[in-house]
Specification:
single chain; 81 residues; mainly beta; SH3 type barrels; 5-stranded antiparallel beta sheet; 7% helix
Length: 81
């Protein structure tokens, strides 16, 4: 569990594939935190954005951190590990 300025959060990475409204497919890692499933991040959180890291997508030479508006996600698929 990580801490910063008296706040603590849980880091629980999960690998996902997601399709954005412009057709871009992004392979990335998402922090599930205290949630059990990827879908919980979308149904239990009122935050309109989701942060993904180690993101790979066409046209990008390097893995990136992206802050994605949930309204721009067509679908998201958890990778089974």
């Amino acid at each position: 569990m990580a801490k910063s300025k008296g706040v603590s959060w849980k880091v629980k990475p999960g690998t996902v594939n997601m399709k954005l409204v412009d057709g871009t497919i992004v392979q990335a890692t998402i922090n599930l935190g205290s949630e059990a499933r990827v879908s919980d991040l979308f149904t239990r959180s009122g935050n309109p954005f989701v942060v993904v890291f180690d993101a790979k997508f066409p046209g990008s030479m390097y893995e990136k951190v992206l802050i994605v508006n949930k309204r721009h996600i067509v679908w998201i698929e958890p990778e089974i590990e």
